[in-house]
Structure formats: structure tokens, C-alpha cells
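Researcher: Let's run the pair from yesterday's discussion. Sequence first, then C-alpha cells, for each.
Model: Starting with the first of the pair.
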Amino acid sequence: MNRRQFVKHGALAGVTAGTSASAQRAPDPPRKPIQVVVRFHLDDPAIRTPEEPGPTRSSLRIKRLTELLEKLGVKAEYAFVGGVVQQLADDFPGTIEKIKALKLPIAYHPGAGHTEPCPVGRGSPPPPGAPREVVWEGLWNFETRTLTPDWRFDETGKLVRGNPRAQQPITPVDLPLYRLPAQQSWLFGGWLAIQNTLGVTPLQTDAGGHGPLYEALGAGYPISEGEVVLPWMRPRPGPPARTDGIRIPFELPELHEVHLFPGVRPTAPKYYRKAPGVDAPRTVDPAEWFEILARNLPGGKNFVSGFLCHVGADWERLERVMSFLAARPESFRIASFDPESDQWRPENAPLAFYRRTYGVGSLAEVRSMNAPLKRIHALSEKSAGVPGPGLWGAPPPQVATGPAAKIVRPQSLTADQILEAADYLLGRWPQGTHDGDLGAPPALLQTSRGALSLADAFEALTASLVEQRKRGRLPTSVRLRGLRGPVDFPVFDLKADPKLDPEKAKTGYMPHEIPRESMPEDPDVVNAQGLPPCGDFHVWMPTHTKVEADDMMAAVERVSGQLTGHVPGVISVRMLTEDSRGREPRWLEMKVNPAEFLYALAQEYRAIHVWGKPGPVVMVSMKVAGSQRCQLIIPYTADTSRGAAVGAVRFEGFIWRAKMSVEELDRAWTTGAAGTRR
């Protein structure tokens, strides 16, 4: 297709070429290392069996991890379940002392653990409609006392479910009945078990320990902030102080097991009605992910990426990624919360808090206390209206409401303004959640020209990259025609409206399971909505994938011919497939949505600005607009034994990106009639 044909098809509504745009601009500010906050959820307490009387698998892994951190000279946050730290103290008291010596950040993972059966009781949920004092009292008992589990060993030594003493505080005499050591340390419940074993009160970070109950248990003390203060972390009571990304860095998508250990099924990317990894894009290796981001992100800004997993998912890969990050201090810095280790100061010790607050002389006395309901109530009233953390550490999705102000739909943009839009976008990556909200681009992109729409940024970036592909240089300015939004984005209706089920709100909302007959009949419509999620059972996260420079630029050229009045709702990009991992490489044309492609456009524009040529980019699964509802859907079959989803049916789950009307799609990308032409 020649230049005249491009113009005819709307690819270049107007491009002003000249000397290299990158040569005219001031150089980028010095690049700051990406801060990588490494966290582990240690939530797998095991029942000791006669066949395995030695250290538990969890203890062995934590010992090995602690030795790795010591060798690398870095810190990682340990979010403990109480039973795990108790087992670790029994198995490897030297590791407990090493954790204390390293002053690792210690957080709390609520609940008794993910394994079933658990070695200690889980705590019974309050009856529906119970007064909050009843809820507080039940949680206080669970967090201070070890409860009897809902299982027992019969006279033959076989483990059987059911226990008449379940949920009652365990006694020293009863501990051996559950193969727990007859030690006072095992009488402490989840939160108090950590305080008793390590001598610190957990941090209020992503895992748990928020709210008035936990403030009554010692949370909320002042801690050092350093450069890593995220919006959902509250080191002091009240909302955090925001400083425009200086002390609160720009957040990058978090890496979870599905990203850290690619190729391990069933955590591969999954399309609706296909097995995990089949004809799906390849999950990028975490080292490549970090390297591409470090190359493509704006300079002079603080970026932080979460790195969250459970010890032991894939030890060799875990050690390889950690060592890679530690060996590249110019590009990455393994960071941690509480860099000055204020958590470990004597004045913040749990017993010091309990003495000041309740006048007790030991943690054993705290364990025997009734819940301080008056204090919890007062703390609840004090914190009313203060925003807490969002689901799984991510802030709640920000949805634009009301009329937008000072929106500009310009007739032209300079190269500097286009770079501003790209940088604004790359500083605000969507934060996908554990349960299927994939996140979306910001509603508007702020530039020196004013608030820019997603559609205008899409057109300007595409036209600029087409000129680069044709002329070998970015244009100095681009004329725009003002495209509509992605009005041909594929949508469908579910036959039932899924609702979040509060009864399942234990470690995060799980979706209400709806009948299989309510699922969409045409998988192609679902799968064309964008990149698939990846995950395992109810843990579904966005896919992180890679696009090579040549494939990206070829996709840009194809897209330029589609700009005939609106942003295309479905874009084809060539990528490696996940199911060819470890075999002969296989490539397919994957379908991505315009929001996903927009972030790739911004990366490519910035790469050319800095390096003078295109480079590889990364894409992340996301929804097309912030106002679009997005969550995990798990169908169930009515004739299953429990009347709900079971293992095989769970793998038919998919991420539901709710239907949006043509008008809603257009407004989301153009800000509707509020924009004025200048």
C-alpha cells in the first residue's frame, strides 16, 4: 500500500515530517531502577504424619528462601499464617533467629491456611445479620487462640472429618491429639502466634491485618516509608500522603505465580472453551518482562512492580529470577516496605503495645483476654470513612463519572505532546486483580495541550509509527481527524447477571456461579474481546505477553488501514503460542483489543524516541474501558453433587467483560460531547 492509499484509508490524516523528532527533543531524564517489592504468602501449614515426622515441606522451603535472601543481601516480605510460623519455629529455630537478624518485613496472611484439612481451626463465620460485636469477638478469639480443627484421628490413626470440639480453644492436653507439639507456643492463635514467635506486630500491607480489630491487636504503628509507599499501604492511621509519584511510585502490573513461572500448567493463558495454553499467546519470561519495561518506560520516574508468590511453586525459576534482579542494580532494586526496620524497634514490639494499652504483663495474658469491644468500637468510629486497601492490594478501579472538564480534541499534536501522552499512559498501567478485573487505561491522558482522549492518542501514535516505518523517523507533528471510539468492539449478553457472593468473601470475592446454559454460545465473540487471562481454578490474573518489534510494526501498518472513522475494536497481532513452549516455535495471529494495543503503541513510540528504532513490547490483558464491568465467571452444572462448580467445570471459567453499548464505547474513548475542537 503506497502513501496515497494510506491517506485515503485514513492512516495518515496528516503527518508533518522533518528532521528526526527524537533529535530535536531534550534527552530523557536519567532512568531510575524499577523497584521490585518481593512478597511471599506463607499459607500452607501441613499436618505432620507418622510417615513424615521431620520438618514440613513449608518449613524446608522457608529455610531455603531465607538463606537465599541472606546470600543476595536483599529483603522480601513474609506474610505468615500463624500455623506456618509456629511449625517453622519447631522445625528450624535457627531460621527464626535468622529472620530476626535480617529484620525481614513481616506481614499477616489471614485465615488458618489454604490446605485442607488444616492443623488448626479456621474460625467459624458469624451467623447472617450478626451484630458487629459478635463478629469482632469471634475474630478476636480466632486471632488470639488456637482453635480445635474440624477433624480428628480415629482409634486406628486415620484422619476423619468432623469433630465435636471444633472451633473451641485448644488445650495443652489436646495438642498431641492433632500431632501438634505439647508446647505453650501452639496455644496462640493466628495474629498472636506471629507476635509471640517473632516478637513483631505484622505490617498492614496487602495480605491482611486491616481495620479496627487489628488496631486493637497492635497494628497501625508508625513505620519508615522510604521510596516505596503505595496508595493501598497505610503505615499510619488515615489516608496516605500523596506526592505525585515521588514517594508513591507509579505501579506496574504485579507478577504472580502465573507470570513468574510461565509454562507451568494449568496457569497458562486460557481462552474460553479451550484447554489452558491452546492457541493462546505465550506468557513472557519474567526476566524479559522486566528488561522490556526497563527499556521502554519513561525516565526520571519511580516505578514499582509487585512480585508475589507462594514458596515452592518452582524453586529453580524463583531463584533464577531473584538472582537476575539482584545482579542488575542499575535497572532493578529489590525493595521492601519499612526500609529502616521500624517494625523491629522495641517501642513497636507487641508486648510493649499491650502493656501500654491494656496493662498486661505477657502475651499469655492477652490470649486469655476477652475481646476489648469498647476499644474496637471506638477505633471503628475513628476510622469511619477512611479508605482502606482495595482487593488484593490493588486500589479500587477508578471509573470516570460526571462531565469531564477541559477536554481537548485537537486538530493536531506535536511530537512532544504525543510523547507526553505516551508517558502518561505508561505511568498508569492497569492493576488487574486476583479475581478477574483486568483493569483499563485511564479515562483521559494529561498533556501540556490539555486532557487528551484515548481515541486521539491512538490515532496520533499509530500515524507516527507508520511514518517511522515508511521514512525511518518520527514526524514532528500529526494532524488528527477525531476518531470515534471502538464501536465495533465485540460484545455479548449473558443470560444471567453474575453477582459477587459475599458468603465467599474470605480471601477476596469469588464470582457467583451461574448455570452453564447462561454462558455465551459463540466462543469466538468472547475470545475476540482481547488477550485471555491466565491462572488456576479461581486465581485468574491478566496475561503478560511479548510482541517482537517487526510483528508490532507490521500490526501498526495493518491498523492504519482500519482507521476509517473509528478506533478498531479487534486488532490482529502475530505472537508466539504458549502450546509451542519447549517445542518448535509456532506463531498465530492473536486478537487484542484497542486498550491492550494502545499500551504497546506507547512503548514503541518511546523506544524509537530513545533508541532510534523499534524494539519488543509487552502486552497485558485488560478491558476496553474503565467503566466496563469485568470479573471471573465460573459456570456450574446443576446435577453436580454439591450443586456448584467442581474441578473440571472450573476450567471452563472465563473473564466476563460486560456488554457496552456503541454509545458507551464511543464516550469512553472520546469523552463524548464534552470535548471541543481546537
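Model: Moving on to the second of the pair.
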Amino acid sequence: MKRIITFIFLISFVFSHASETGFCTESSRPDKEVKRKHVLILNSHQQGLPIPDQVISGILEILKKNSFSIDDIYIEHLDLFRFSTSRFRNELALLLAKKYNNVEIDLIITITKPAADFLENEGSTFKQSASVLAAIMPSGIKEIHTGKINRNKAVIPWKLDSAGTLRYALKLFPATKRVVVVAGVRDEFLPYLPGAKMDFKQWEGRLEFEYTEDLSYEEMCQRISVLPQDSIIIYAPYFFDKTGRSFIPVEVAVDIAEMANVPVFGVLDVFIVNGIIGGSVLNSKVIGEQAGRFALDILNGKISLSEETTLILPDYIPMFDWHQLKKNDLDISTLPSESVFKNRPLTLWSQYKAEVISTVIVIVFLLVLLTVLQNWNRRLKNAEMSIRESEKKFRSYIENSPDGIFVADDNGYYIDVNPAAEKITGYSRQELLSRSIRDLLAEETADLGITHFKTLKEIGISKGEMKFIHKSGEIKWWSVDAVKLSDKRYLGFVKDITVRKSAEDEIKKLLAEKELLLNEVHHRIKNNMNTIRGLLTLQIAAEKNTAAASSLMDAEARVQSMILLYDRLYSCDNYRELSVTEYIVPLAEKIVAGFPESEKIKISTDVEDFILNVNKLTPLGIIINELLTNMMKYAFAGRDDGVIGISVSKTGNNIVVVVQDNGVGIPENIDFGNSTGFGLNLVKMIIEQINGSVHIERGGGTKFIIEFSV
């Protein structure tokens, strides 16, 4: 019951805080994680100015939402408006060079044009390949590229929607005759007036336009306080007046809202202060978020800045001050449905919608939970009955199990056993319940049994085979499979495997005897073969007849081939098969080495490494022995050197063996059909036995090509 109450409280808490935390939507899911990429943000201004600070805030919010570590983001406020001398810029460049000497910057984001100019003129320290994203820049290409270092960059231009703002103003004030555009001078780093004048050309002849860039700040304030009532004001960024004084545009917006005697509209979200109606605005934070998303695409490799300039058009938002709309009794139905209204009062439903929905959901949930609890109560009663039946069945299974079942506590003392356990140990139930695992372990496996129990306690499962002492004193072998039921209960299943272990010991003994016998047989066979070879060698030395000695040498070579094959087979675990490479290559080397001046003959081998049955390998060895013997006898007569080549290849079940030399060549009148020599006849006979074929190629020596299948 306590768990249910806690669960209800948690559900209520989650729903009651839904309005504060919000619900996760598809758009809020982070993109693929960017690992160990470094971003440098260069802000033209000092810290604390609304527009650049909001742009940076939007960038950081997007990067952090997408698992980008704040430790990999660097921000530099360059303060280039207050300090713009060449000496300051050069010293600032040197300072940044030292600061980021050991940091690999992957993306540089500049905020407003002075920072971009600084990067192009003094930013040679940063690697040329680093991507650049320039936010709040002039929209013209000439204004974008003004430096010494032309980097490929993506640009979010500073294009204020003067035309869109005027359209909204004319819908709200259709009787307007005069438009006064409040703007300062020296805004070349973010030119506004040239673009605005182009936008306003479509209304020339219908509206009269007046611009304040030629007025001082005081003259501008005086002018906007005495305008005709059929006028409106569009306020643009105001940085300097004609006297050269600098201003903070947001502070100017507050002054204009207080002094103007006609409606005032703005083109930036930060200008929509108390007293300014609104307009089609650039939202500084939205620009930052747009820059953040584009930055992620660059860092993730989705976008490559292959062109010198990539323009990213900004988004405009219709934004209006609700108090000003109501104060001027304006018809908001003429405004777009997606308009954002600042200072709009909340209705009771808007204020408490989340709480009402949460409360209704909790009530419905509680009703459902009450129904579920009633069903649970009924099921619990049924479950209790089922458990009692299951306990009876389980107890029956344990009592009748052929395996010994032991239940032990965390100290290894038995707390429950079944009848099979009594039979295996020879002890009664009461006797076992007064003993521990250690009491039954035989001395020679006592350490193994203790280790077995420790493993069981640590990882929850253990199995092994060990010796135990029967009540009669006889040593028994047990197979133990144990599991951990809890920190205080351990269950073991035991089988008496004494008979099996005795059988295994007997089998090991018989295998050892067999291995000894087999080694003796191999030893005798090898000795006998070496004896035969030795007898042939002695006979060759004693033989006066040259022809007979030559025949004996051939026989000795054939025995040598068989000895080599036997050695290779005996050194392997498999006596029926052998690697062709391990047999053919050393065989060829030994045959050639047995002839005088063999060091003058070079052997070239190209033998594929595959396994061949001894039934095929033995005749193949004899064939190669006969062919190499003939070559060494006749192919290089009168020659100082020579080359013998051997290749063996396998394609599917077909094997091709090529034995060739570059000697004098076999006479045209000798082949396998009319040879009187024993060697070639033996080769022909063996090839026929393995169902193979052989043919001779002449020219530049002799080539024997043998083919057979396996």
C-alpha cells in the first residue's frame, strides 16, 4: 500500500509541474552528438549589449541542446567599437594567438561586421581551413569581403524588413500620409538606410518619406515630437548622430517611445519596448538559434562551405505590443495569425490550463487506479490459493527429485535437504541440518569447495566437481550446481558421479597405454624403414655393376620418399591427411640434395597449401621422386647449372602437378608409351592407379603435367 501511495504522489507531482518543465517534443530531441569539436565566437561589442548577447544566447542554447559541451565553446568580446585603433587590433590578435595556440578551432562564428573584418585582416593565426559563420552581416557581397584573408563563409545577413513593417503599419493606420524613418549616421558596418529606401520606392507618390540621418540627436527628438497626426515613425538602429556621438539603440528606442506624438513601429524585437507598437522584426535570439542549427550542420559534415559566400536568409516575425494595440484601439484581425503579442494578459484558462488538465488527469488516474486495485485485491486472493497449490507441488518435486537438493545459509550450514541428499551422504536429515558444507568436504578438495562457495556468494552461480566424505568414510565424487536465492539462502543440486569418475580414470589409463604402444609401433616402423634404406646404401657402395648401383639408388630414393612422408604424418595429430606444402617442398629438396653437385641446381616451387589424403599423397611423392631423379641424371648433362620447377594447384576437386626443367630436353622418341626405363613406366603405372593423366611438353627443357581428381 505504501508503494501505491508513493506512486500516486509522483504522478501528481509530474503533472502539476508540466507547465514549468514542458513536455519533450520531436523538435527538442538532440541531433547526433558532436564529439570534441571546438567553436570560437567573436563578438564585435563589449558584453552586456542586448542584440549580440541574445544572438550568442540562441547559439549556445542550440549547441547545448545537442550535447555540445560548454567546455568546447569559446567566446571573445572584442569591444571593437570603443577600441578600434590598429595598435589595439594587432595586440588583440597577438593575445588571441597565444591564448588559442594549442586549441584546434573547427568553426568560427562572428557577431556583426567588425568581428568578421577583424578575422579577415588580423585573424591569420586561425587555420585557413576553419569554417566561418558570420551572423548579422551586410547583405551585399562587397561589404562582406573587405579583408586580406578571404575565407569561405556562411553569412546570415542583417536585412531588416522595412517593407513588411510598413505594410503592417498601413493596415493598422490606413490614413497615413507621412513616414518618418528615424536612423542615425555612420551605420556602414550594418547599412540600413540604402536598403530601406529601396524597399520604400513602391510607395513613392502615395506616401511622403522623411529621414533623420542629417539631424543631431536633439533635433531628431524635437522633430518627432511635433509631427502631423497622419504620420507614423519607423525606428531603425541608431548608433551615431551627425555630431559623432554614439548611442545604444535600445536606449534610443525608449526615448523615442516617450517623445513621439505619433505611432512608432520597429524592425528589431528588442525595440518593441513600452510605447512602440511593433512590426515585422528580426528576433536576435531566433537569429542565434538559426546560426546554432547551421553551425551543427557544418560541424556534423552535413554542409560543406565550398563556395566563397553562402547566404542564409533570416526569418522575420510579426511582433506587436498588446497594450499599444489596445491603447490606440487598433483592429488586430488585420494582423497575421502567427503574430506574437508582447504583454498580452493571460486568461484564467491560459494561466491555469496546465493545472486544470493535470488535476483532471490525476482524478481520472485515481479512478482507474481504484478499479485496478480492486482487481488486484481479487487477483491476490486467487494468487494466494495458487501459491499454496504451487508450494505443495514444489515440495513434491523436491521430495521426489533423484538429485540431492541442499539449502544452505550464508555461513554454509545446511537448513534444508531432500531425501535424495540423505541417500547420497548416508546422513539423516537431522544429522545434515547440524553440519556445514565444510564438514562434508574431502581434504584434497576442501580448498576447491570453499572457493566454489565464495564464487556462489559473489556472482550468484557456481558449478564444479569435488570429493566429499560419505558417512561410511568412503570418498565420493559429487557434481554440484548451485544458485544464489538471496544473501542468506543458497540452493545446491548434487549428483553422485563416483562411478563416472572411476570410468574416466580407467579410460585415461587405457589411453595412456595405447599412446605408449602406438609410439613404440611408430618407432619400430621408422627404424625398419631406416634399416632398409641403410642396407640399400651399403649395397650401392659395394655394387660394382654401374647399372645395378643406379637401380639401387633409385630404390633408396623411393624409400627416402616414404620415410619423409611417414615423418610428416607421425608429427601431425591426423595420420590420414597432410599438408601438400609440408610434404612436397622438403621432399624435392632432399631428392635433389642426394645427387653430386646438387648445389648448382636451383629449385623453384609454387605449391598451394591444401590438405591431401595419404592415399593420394604417397603415389604423388613417388611420381615426383621418379621425375626429379631422371632430371638430375640426364637433364643437366654437360651443364654447369640448371633450374627445376615444381608447382601444385587445386581447382575444385581437380589437382594439377607440373614438374619441369630447363635442361637438354627428353628425346622425341621417348614418352610414356614406349619407354624402356623403369622410372617412366613406374610413373605411368601409378598415374593410372590414381585415375590421372600425364603428358610431356618439350622446348627449352622438359615439362611433365600430371592431372588427377580427389
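Researcher: Give me one sentence on the second I can quote.
Model: The first strand starts at residue 39 and ends at 43.
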